[in-house]
What we know:
The complex is a heterodimer of chains A (about 625) and B (about 280). Chain A is about 25% helix and about 30% strand. Chain A has about 625 residues and is α+β, with helices and mostly antiparallel strands. In chain A, helix 2 packs across helix 4, helix 4 packs across helix 5 (about 415-425) and helix 4 (about 385-400) packs across helix 6.
Amino acid sequence: MIRFSFIIIILFLHSFITAQCDTAYDSNQSSKIANYDISVELDHKNKVAHCHQTLRWKNTSLDTIRSLRFYMYMNAFKNMKSSYLKDSGGKIFGRNIADRGTDEWGHITINKMLDEDDQDLSKNTKFIQDLDNNTNDETIIEITLQNPLLPGEIGIYEMDFTTKMPKTIARSGYSKKDFFLFVHWFPQVCVYEQDKDGIWGWNSHQFVPGTEFFADFGDYNVRISASDHLQIGGSGCRISESKADGKQIVEFQAYDLIDFGFVVYSEFDVHTSTFQGIDIEILMPPEHCAFADRYREAVEHGLEYMSANVGPYPYPKITVVDPPVHALNSGFMEYPMMITAASFYGIPKSIRSVESLVIHEFVHMYFMATLASNEKEEAWLDEGFVTYYEDRILDHYHGKKSSFFDVLGYRSGNAENSRLEYIKLDHSRLGPIARPGWEIKGPYKGLIYAKTSSMLRTLEGLVGIQSMDKLMQTYFDAYKFKHPKEADFRSIAAEVLGDESIGFDLDLFFDQCLHGTDICDYEVVSIDNNSEQSTKVIIAQNGGLLFPVNIEIIYQNGSTAYMEWGGTPGQKIIEFEPGTNIKAVNIDPNCTINLDINFNNNSVTYEPNKKPLVKYAAKSTHWMQAILEYASFLF
Amino acid sequence: MLQRIKHIWNRVLTHRSEVTCIYLFQLIYGVVIGCISYSTLDDYIGQSMALDRLSSGFDRSVFMDLILNNSGALSPIVTSGIVLIPIYLLFSIILQGGLLHNIRIGERGIKTQLRNGIHYLIPFLGYVCISVLIILVFSFGIGLLYKSIVGDPLMSFSSEKPFIHSLLLIVFIISIIVNLTWGWSVVARYKYIESGSFWASIRSGIIFIKRHFIKTLLIGYLLIGLHLSLAYIYFLVVGDTGASSWMIVAIGILAQQVFSWMRVIIRGIGYISLDQIEDTFIG
């Protein structure tokens, strides 16, 4: 009996020690179309993973499926001929990649694929290039089935594959001898869905810059065998861990994910905590340990704010990976239940790059991991929405005017920074945002991230924050664990906001902002109090965007009046009774139309406040004196 | 020690008119830039209520909207700076040369400062060129050596700590070179003032640096320390006080000018400190 109790206690302790998070969370939130059981044998010396995968794929279409298509993203890093790299100019993230040695490239190979009748399907394959017909691109493979899958059937396939890791290029890869980030590392089945016309087919675009996630939800069970000197973290919950003969086996389980990534490193400091019942695991190199609290607090802010304003975080855990500096190209990215951040030793608290990055990637757990829109075709639906919430969260916790940085009296808010990134574009006339990633050349971030964020902030300004929250909560509830598209969001917006007499055409709003290239620039051209016929105010919309906007009229006697203007492009003359003395006119006094590219010309006043002019002129004087003194130290 | 500091301070006070002359020259240039800045801001946002947003402190959107929507807005300021700085640097040789002369010979007054400064302009321009060349060659050489040893520093090091430490080491080495070059150029100019021989003064400067290597470095680092402290205090005291009233604006301007004047005083302290050591050396 004692012996039996001892075994029970040991088993309990074992599960207590190794179970990383509560795997008993709601594990049936998605339709579970693509389910993976993967065993990985990592040969860290040769940077190779030998893997076995069991795929259970459900045919939810009305078609008989005669072939399966898989993402083979690692082949993008096979050589410079892939569609991802051929137009890169030999540089990714500013780093030269063209001159690397043969063993520094990566690839993925399916060695064997058996169906349930043990028929080897791996001989009947071809690579698909739907975007550019580049026959050197091997990022999508099609495998013909011997036994077609009827509607509603589940196919089970056993695959042996080898993933050779490249030296880090864009996130995936190894750095120095012991850091590995395994993302887009296994043959992942593409999405079989209906197109706009309702016709079923594979949505399987090649891996090219500006495109990344689109996959079906499913359950993952991943066992990783590696040298025991390495630490392993990943998407999902760690459910078991064992060590023997210099080897370790770590097993992860995750439900309802669209992807699975893991990280391996020998030097991680591990920081764990729990917030609102969610486990937070931070894996960081020792030299970054001073950031642990900043990371934790940023994740907590994200969790708290998103749970309160969008919906409950749907997973039991979040892992934050902070790569060492030599693997910096692995940072700045999101994977379901796992994000990669980036930091640099010594970044002061007043520069919130760490916080903004962690919060941005965390919000992807909502817009990408849960609302799994097609990032390849409609990146704005995740990156843009994420930036909007990144701005809101940072501004909420760190102040509107200082949430991005606050150094020596110079400061900027995060939302303010997003707007500036948008107006910095050369400019929004570059193109509409609602289009596939491969069509966007040039400033992707300014368009997809910043313009979308500014659009949503403008919508928030027009409908009010409560309505905006209601819209986003309804959207999240309706489409979580699905693949929402633009039409889905717009129909939810019409449903939620339409009843609230918002006073403008919502369809026109989205058409203009998503598919148009017009800009918004309100201007007060002049105030004329001296005309005998009437007092005249001339205002203008110098762009083509049509938004209703508030105008503040301040009279000489101190009274204030407000009027609404439809924002029609061109000039408009507003006439007042003769003798009306207007002191100032201010269009959009609260700066709610975030898409307005110039707030400075939104107002004209007869009594300008000249104090700041004098102050900044004096500052210029002082800085010039300082420059002269320092520049002449040898003179 | 206290006696020495007191002595140096008294000598700085003796030459307050020359120091103030340098300060006033810088002020004139600063005011030119200040007026251009005022006029630029007034042209673009002078009638806008956006100015109210600047009353409570720095507002990035006001400046960025101005710059991004008016691409040439800052060019009058930048162009004026590019023209004015080289002109000032030439004047600076005269002003500093005159100050060095007065310190070394024991004369006072702005007239002698300017007269002798003009007299020394050409030879002192030579010291400036040599100093700048030394610093550029050493800095470039060290940078090249670092690059050839380390390669891409972010990829080569196992963490950013050694990278930062290596950068700090480079900055430290360059600061030594800068300090020694500065010390050499001041002493060489003192020697020229006495002997009138360019080559002999160069040689004397080198001998001085060899003999008073540590002292020269200490003075250099003391001056750097004073400048850094001054900058820190500036941001602490003046920082971004806003412009909510004319009183606050006026106090801010006054404080800025005090700091500008103190920066020139620090230069005087450096010259006189080296003069004290040089006296010992020659003696």
